[in-house]
Amino acid sequence: MAPKKVLLKVIILGDSGVGKTSLMNRYVNQKFSNQYKATIGADFLTKEIQVDERLVTMQIWDTAGQERFQSLGVAFYRGADSCVLVFDVNVAKTFENLDSWREEFLLQAGPRDPEAFPFVVLGNKVDLDARIVSQKRALSWCQSKNNIPFFETSAKDNINIEQAFEVIARNALAQERVEDIYLPDTVDLSDQKDKQSAQNCAAC
Amino acid sequence: MALARPGRTPDRSESRAAMDDEYDVIVLGTGMKDTLLSGLMSVAGKKVLHMDRNSYYGGESASLNLNQMFEKYGNGEKPPAELGSSRDYNIDLIPKFMMASGKLVRMLLYSKTTHYLEFKQIDGSFVYNKGKVHKVPVTETEALASGLMGLWEKRRFRNFLIYVQEYDAANASTHKGRDLSRLSSADLIKDFGLQQETVDFIGHAIALNHNDEYLTKPAAELVKRCQLYSLSLAQYGKSPYIYPLYGLGELPQAFSRLSAVHGGVYMLNKKVDKIEYDESGRVCGVTSEGETAKCKMVIGDPSYFLADGKVKQVGQVIRMVCIMSHPVPNTNNSDSCQIIIPQSQVGRQNDIYITCLGASNSVAPAGKYIVIVSSTVETAEPVKELSPALKLLGKPDKIFALLNNVYVPANDFAKDGCFITSSFDASSHFESSVNDVLAVYEQIMSTLPPEERKLIDLDHLPAQE
Ligand SMILES: Nc1nc2c(ncn2[C@@H]2O[C@H](COP(=O)(O)OP(=O)(O)O)[C@@H](O)[C@H]2O)c(=O)[nH]1
Ligand SMILES: [Mg+2]
Q: PANTHER family from the xrefs (chain B) (predicted)?
C-alpha cells in the first residue's frame, strides 16, 4: 500500500525579531541572511518529509510581520495542526511573552483539546554571546505547560532546526484528528471553465 | 477577532518608529475594498501603512462572532446560552455571494490569494413569484417542470436565452441585426414577446439587477449579466454562487495578508485622530495618538473621511440578521441559498434579498442558520419594508436590525490625494464592489507618473502558471 499523504499546517508565533522568518527559511530553503528586515513578511513555505512510513507535507506559515502590532487576524490561526512558539534567548521579554502567545493561539485557533495541542518551543539565536534566558528557566516553563518540547536553535548556524521540525511533524501527526466533523466539499477556483466549455446553458 | 488581546503590551518605541516614517500610501480601514487596494499597492512596490480603528479585520464588511454581534447590535443584551458557542459564528455584516465566474474570483486568481481561502458553492437560488418561493431552474428538466411560466412562455424564454448565450460582441453574425449598444433592455426583451413576469425573472433573478433602472439602459449590459449568470452556473452546477468558508470576513484578511507579505505594515486597534493636509489641501499624513505618519496619498473607506466632509450620503441599506434553528421554508432544506424578491412582486422599487448560510459554510454551529434579509431603504420605516421577506422565514431565534448609510466620495482626488471607496451597495454579489475597487485603482494610477502605472485587465488575465 502506498504511504498515505498528509498535509500539516504549522504556524510560527512569537515576538517580532526573534527569528521566525529566518527559522522557516533555514529549514525549507537552507538559507540565512542577516539582512532580513523584521518588517518584511514572508508567506508560507512547504516542505515534504518522510516520517516513518508516511509522506508528510509541512505547510509552514509565517506571520508576514502582522504580529508586530498585534494585528494577526483569526484567519491566520485557522486549522493549524501545530504551533511553534519562538523566543530569543538573548531578550527576556520575548520569553515572558510566550505565555500570551500561547493563550492567544488557543483563543483564536480554538483547538478542541487545548491541553493536548502540539506546541513546540524554540529558544533561538543561541549563537550569540548575550544569553539571558537560561535553559533551566525555559524548560521549567515548558514543563508547566504540559511538557511542551523545547529546542535551542540558531537559524544563523543551523543548530537543531531539522530536529525541531521533525518533532513538530511527529507530534502533529500523533494528534491527527479523526475528523468527525462534517468536512465540506470545497471547490477549486483555479479550475475555471471558459465560455466555450460551459455551453450547457442553464434553463435552455 | 475583537478578542481582547492577551497581556503582551505593544512596544511603544517600535510603534513610534513605524509612525515616524514616511509612506507612499496610508490605508484607513480594513474592509474588503480597502484591503484589496492595499494589497495591489504593496504588490506594486509601494510602501504601505494600513490602520484600522477596530481590533478586527473587515470594517463594514467584517464577519463577527456572536459576542461581537451582541456587543455591537444587541442593545445591551447578552447572548443566550441556547445559541451555542460564540466562536462558531461568523456573521457577515454585508451579505453577498460571489459569482463563480465573476470579477472577484478573477481578482483572487490575479492576486494569488486563493491559497488563503476555501470556497463552497451555494446550494440553491430561489425567486419569489405570486406569493410563492420557486427554485430558479438550473437544468432543462427543472426548467420544463418549473411552475414559473407556462409552456408557450417557456419557449419564448428559451429563444431569448439562446440569443443571449450565442451573443458575442465581437462577432456581428451573432447580433442578428440588433445593435445592443443602442437598443434598450426593454426593447430587446420586447422583441422576444416575453410577459412582464418573465421580464422580471430575467432582469432580477438572472441578470441580478436590484431595481428596474436597467430597462432603459443599453441591452449589452443585460446580456453580459445573463452570460455571467450562466457561465457562473456552469462552473459548479447547483447555483451561480460561491462563498468562502468562515464567512466574507476572510476576504479582507486574505488581501491584508497579501499586502503584509509584500511589506505592508499593519496596525489594528489604531485610533485615527486626524488626516493631515498641507496648505494646498493635499493630504500629507495621518495622526494617531499624538504621532503623525507621513504619506503621499491616503486610501480609505468613507467612515474615515466623514469629518473632513469628503463624502456624501446617497441612501441607506437595511439588513436584518436572523439566527434560526431551521433552514428557510420551501427551499428544499437547502443548507445555503438565496431568495430574490423582485421589487414588482411586493410593490417596491428595490428588490429584497434573503441569504441563508449555515454550519456547512462554517458560519454557525450545527443546526443553526444565519439568514440575512436586505434591501435599499425606501421609506421612514425600513424594518417594516422587509416584512414580506420576514414572513417567509418562520420564527427566528434572534433578530438584529442593521441600518447602514451609503456614502460615496465627494472629493477631488487629483487635488487632495484622498482615494475613497464607496460603501457597499444592496446588490447580492460583489461585481459592483470590484468595479469600485478597479475604478479607485485607476484613479490612483492616473495620478502616478506614467512609468509607475500598472493597469489591471481582469478580462484578459495572463495564463496561470
Ligand atoms: N545571530 C542570529 N541572528 C538571527 C538568528 N535568527 C534570526 N536572526 C536575525 O534576527 C533578525 C530578525 O529575524 P527575523 O527572521 O526577521 O525575525 P521575525 O520577526 O521573528 O520573523 C534578522 O536580522 C535575522 O538575521 C539567529 O539564529 N542568530
Ligand atoms: Mg518575520
A: RAB GDP DISSOCIATION INHIBITOR, RAB GDP-DISSOCIATION INHIBITOR
